[in-house]
Structure prediction request, 426 residues.
Amino acid sequence: MAKDKPHLNLVFIGHVDHGKSTTVGRLLYDSKNIDEQTMRKLKEKAQELGKSGFEFAFIMDNLKEERERGVTIDLAHKQFETAKYFYTIIDAPGHKDFVKNMITGASQADAAVLVVAVTDSVMAQTKEHVFLSKTLGVKQLIVAINKMDVKNWDQAAFNKVKDDVSNLLKSVGYKPDEVQFVPVASLHGENIVEKTTKMTWYTGPSLVQAIDNLKVPEKPTNLPLRVPIQDVYNITGIGVVPVGRVETGVMKVGDKVMIVPGREGKGVPGEVKTIEMHHEMLQKAEPGDNIGFNVRGVGKNDITRGDVLGHTENVPAVATEFTAQIVVINHPTVLTIGYTPVFHIHTAQIAGQIIEIVKKINPATGETVQEKPDFIKNGDVAIVRIKPVQAVVIEKFKDVPQLARFAVRDSGSTVAAGMCIDLVKK
Prediction:
């Protein structure tokens, strides 16, 4: 059973034409996670559209518009399993305007596969994606060096790109000796599932084996309990049932809990009566569990989406302002003091104003580039102070990283992403 295996979220990143979608498609097909018939249909579709060879990419690019443009637009989720793990694959778009999806993808990924074409090596987007992965806390990385067939399976060509990518990884703080580098030719299925026969010089794992070498992240059960509320239902016979995902800690039936900030902003205390997941009653819930639960003493109008539940002895931090490290990704002009976009923090969405730009920093070294700049623009990493319109639950990255990350959005696009490093408690 898939759900008995450990589960990993895997995000595929990299420059737009380096073969991410084809790599993912090939992986799913060669590992028998996609059947012959589906594949045959996609092949015919590809030929019909004059895009022969795109059939593997089509597995992930299932939107009509994407097939016609040959570009990955939205984030596609696919399940995939090996003997060892059960994976959710997130195929993150490489195109500039789709970076916003990349953020939502990377912020929930346990590991990333960076696809780099041996023909191009490191491109602007390769840098941007590596850098975002680091800023957003993706700890494990595999580098698939693709299109090896174009260079006649040449070891020297592989090594050159490996060196380029290693330098890039070092510059943002990854350790290249902890990263697996795998030569592949995705279109031909070379070294994806089966070990390569064309590159006798290569003794390492195939891409699937490399993925199976990843480690399952420890469940953060030792951190304080944090359950951001996604929805609140009123169910006949049970009463009020908040729904959410346990991010950290452990929740047990009988626990004394506090949900903050709550409707009045003072917090709502209660006692956990029941916990349910997939229609089964549980005695306890752990990180990663999506649960519905009933709390004695909590009314339908006391709490709302974006509130967070914790134990009474360690209540989640409610901040009236916070200091964050942000990376500006996609803003048409510049960000200045007074700018008031919407912050997406766990399940909360709240407007907040930049009240100070403390400094610009070098993302690779953490050194200060400029104190108190007048503005920040795309590509800049900065420390800023933010005042939300009302108090919001956010934690310091060093305390509870799962509740420290956020995306900044403005009129439909993601402008920046970041993490909280300090806060002023309410």
